[in-house]
Amino acid sequence: MIILFYSLCSFISAFLLFLIQPLFTKTLLPLLGGSAAVWNTAMLFFQTLLLLGYAYSHFSTRFSLKKQSLIHMILLGASFAFLPIALRGAAEPPVSVMPIGWILRVLTISIGAAYFILACTAPLIQKWLSSTRGSGASDPYFLYATSNIGSFMALLGYPFLMEPLMHLPHQKQLWSLLYLVFAICISVCMILMWKNFQGEQKSSAHPEEKISTRRKVKWVFWAFIPSAYLLGVTLYISSEVAAIPLLWVVPLTLYLLSFILVFSQKRILSISFLYWLFPFLIVPLTITLAATILLPLPMFIPWHLLTFFLICIFLHGQLAEDRPQIQHLTQFYLWLSVGGVLGGIFNVLIAPQIFSRVYEYPIAVTLACLALSNPSQGSTSLKKDLILSAFIFALVLIFYHFIPQLAASEVTLILRRFICFGLPGLVIFGFRRQSRRFGLTLGALMLAGCLTAWADSYIFVKRSFFGVNAVLKEGENIHKIYHGSTVHGIQNLSPEMRHIPLGYYDPSGPVGNVMNHVKKREKPHIAVLGLGAGSLSAYASENESWDFYEIDPVVLEIAKNPALFTYLQDCKASYHVILGDGRISISKMPDHSYDLIILDAFSSDSIPFHLITHEAIQLYQSKLKENGLLLFNISNRYLDLRGQLFSLAITNRLEAKISIWGKTFEEAKKGFFSAWWFVMGTSQSGLQDLDKKIWKDRPASTSDVRVWTDNYSNLISAFKKKP
User: Fold this and answer.
1) What is the pLDDT of residue 266?
2) DSSP for 61-94?
3) For residue 566, how many other CB atoms are within 10 A of its CB?
4) Which H helix or E strand runs over 271?
5) How far apart are CA 422 and CA 419, in angstroms?
6) Longest Cα pair distance anywhere in the chain, in angstroms?
């Protein structure tokens, strides 16, 4: 009976603890432009509350267990004042500064009390169990694996069951109901502890065990690296694909699964096999990271996640092997939590301030390599290891400097970087049986990659909360703006070409055709959600007015700098740039303001899904003049939004057409991209007058999908079968 209730309480508390993370963070996304950094900031909050919960569990042991449990019941009762969970204190986030403080404040007000109670449950009930006559009291660490199973099920259940099947308000109501069940369960655990109390258990093997400072530092270090790695790999993946719960929870699920495996009584994975496998994964991964090479989605996500999982197994296994006697149980969890919070602080607060690019992920990989020392492998001279590392570092820099002079002109940037980093990587692979040498040389390769990252091509790089924006110069006149690995605009600055919109905006293609149609109206008013390089302003004429909505201040800084792009400087129309989330900002405009609204926020591979919900389309319709048009740029490497947009058009009684605009190799060399565009309008808006060679009706291959709303979305259904 005792084991049953304690296991159940441990399971439910962890289930709720990790269910609320994607559930509540998703409610913040529409307020922050769907930025992938929202999840990492929220993770810092969750890690900090977990640390406070563990600290409370540890320091409350100064009281008797019965007195401690009474205090806990009072705090539990107080947490019900903040139920059911809801978004509280959520005024609009700041647009001119990083909104990290705003996110942390909203999370604290909204779910802080309940999350704190759940956070301190795992070590607390393990301590309670150790004081009873129940089986398992002598070694209650097994409850840690039980709680991680609850966490594991919550994280997998949310994107695959709860998110596709339930609306957001219903998800919050279910969570609040389960919290009541948890409160009943932990109350039963407290009563059972009182009835079966026999004093705290002590181990007879090492009755005088003391925890040294060095041992505590090791615990923190072993916990810090997987935490920093978790946030780094999550930001890397979700920035390239989409800021959605699925891509948040998969890395976190693997992180927790590693705890389950290493704290279970039987080891499932052979350490010797893992040491053999590790170099085959980490060396190619380090080469691609150092060389900034982006692989196809079906390859790079499993590869990065498998390597991450392997490193978690190693380092969390070190923690499991070094866990102390049960009288130090709460202290052990406290120091683990300190390491986790430090990982969050480094990734969320420090790295964005000191790095212009996302270097925290390569740094976490490097630290992991250095931390994985295999005692069974032969020792090497530290002096020789350092000399070899310096040699690898110098070799990369020499290759990087001389290859452009030796290679033919058609050698691409990616091929050049692959040669520079791939050949030294093969040398490093030969050191795989010498653990320290292997780690140091991999670190040298990664450091060289950070120092050389596109240094000869980028003329501007700046990081904000919404990601890294950079401007690449190609040849004498071509400038491209990148957000991560996605091109958001291109301009040829030569006098004869600077006024031509390149990229997705070909004047002879879908955009040019719609623009010619709209320009027949008297003094058209046009809105663009997503500024980029300002390419669309090249279509503007003197009798028009344009409003650009942009959430990232760095993008505006780039577009207004004539040394980088001149589209805005050359704009012939009256224009305004409004900073803030496009949907929130356009909602403040008077109804029936625009002849055309262009949504150009989906060409990035990480899309803000809240811009294409049923409520969003209704909002845009209210802002359009009679017979106005909606134009969507849905060019994307990984997501196919055609089915969703056709379903939205039908739901809102609008007509729709699609254009898949391909480009020849020669056209691509001139700066024109292949693009997917989608247009919506009423039956009187003139869609039938658009060029039928460019615009097509709904393809037969496009199937109906469930319409997304502000309370329901399922991006899994939008993934392309062939990215």
Assistant:
1) 65
2) GGS-HHHHHHHHHHHHHHHGGG-S----S-PPPP
3) 20
4) helix 271-290
5) 5
6) 89
- Report how far residue 621's alpha carbon sits from residue 608's, in angstroms, rounded to the nearest whole number: 19
Secondary structure of 291-325 in HEC code, one letter for each residue: CCCCCCHHHHHHHHHHHHHHHHHHHHHHHHHCCCC
Residue 595: in which H helix or E strand, if any?
A: strand 594-599
Sheet holding 478-483, edge to edge: 458-464, 467-474, 478-483, 486-492
Q: What is the pLDDT of residue 652?
A: 92
DSSP letter assigned to residue 528: E
Q: Minimal CA–CA distance to 110: which of 23, 10, 47, 174?
A: 23
CA distance 305 to 268: 19
Under-70 pLDDT residues of the chain: 1, 33-36, 90-91, 95-97, 133-142, 144, 197-209, 239-246, 264-271, 292-298, 373-380, 403-414, 453-457, 485, 602-607, 701-703, 716, 720-723
Beta-bridge partners for 464: 467
Residue 327, number of CB atoms within 10 A of its CB:
16
Say which amino acid occupies 217: V
Give the DSSP letter of residue 639. Answer: B
Would you state the pLDDT for residue 630? Answer: 96
List C-alpha distances in Å: 709 to 167, 463, 603, 611, 685. 9, 31, 21, 10, 25
pLDDT at position 334:
85
Query: CA 618, CA 599: separation in Å to the nearest integer?
Result: 14
Within a 10 A sphere around the Cβ of 134, how many other Cβ atoms? 21
Compute the distance between CA of residue 416 and CA of residue 646 in angstroms, rounded to an integer: 43
What string of DSSP letters covers 334-354? HHHHHHHHHHHHIIIIIHHHH
Cα–Cα distance for residue pair 658/679, rounded to 1 Å? 7
Q: Which of 629, 646, 620 is nearest to 680 (CA)?
A: 629
Structure token digits, residue 238:
């979700």
Letter for the amino acid at 127? K
User: In 346-381, which residue ranges form alpha helices assigned H by DSSP?
Assistant: 351-354, 360-371
Whole-prediction pTM value?
A: 0.78
Measured in degrees and rounded to the nearest 5, phi and psi for residue 266 equal: -120, 130
DSSP lists the bridge partners of residue 657 as 679
What confidence score (pLDDT) does residue 202 get?
A: 47
Q: Tokens in use for 327?
A: 């009288």
Pairing of strands 594-599, 574-579: unpaired
* pLDDT of the residue at 140: 67
Residue 8: phi and psi, rounded to 5, are: -65, -45
* pLDDT attached to residue 233: 86
Q: What's the rounded Cα separation, in Å, for the pair 353 and 100? A: 12
Q: Which whole-number Å values give the CA distances from 86 to 58, 246, 537, 613, 642, in the listed order?
A: 30, 22, 41, 21, 33
